[in-house]
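Quarterly update from the structural biology core.
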Amino acid sequence: MNRSRYVTRPLDATDRAIIAALNDNGRMTVRELAEQIGMSSPSVTERIHKLEDTGAIRGYTIIVDPTVFGLGIFAHVRVRAMPGEAKRVAQMLIDTPEIVEADHVTGEDCFLAKVVVGDLQELETVIDRFLPFSSTDTAIIQSSTVARRLPRL
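Predicted structure, tokenized:
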């Protein structure tokens, strides 16, 4: 529900501050957020609603550490679909729970997928599912230099 005509107004510094604070701690109360950015709680609440209405804030989530669940192997897999198989490969990416992200990309490869599994045998099993319909190139992630973060707003 659009509560305002806010959609035509560009984001300002206050909007960016709200988004950054919620990104750092999505569980903070409106009161805490208001104190942090120097506004009243009702004003912050209205801003949040407007940001949701515009789609600037699309949802709230948690971050889970897969290693706690025994999933310690992370890999990027470049996938090049065989001629005529791109739709099938895209659906396979969607249907494979070990694939936690996948993007359709330009260049020689069709897709770039991120896989999270418990061991190398599982990684091989996931990759092998795609071999009848595509070629793959896998890079195991040793460590993350830059964790997922907000782009510069």
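The chain has a mean pLDDT of 93.
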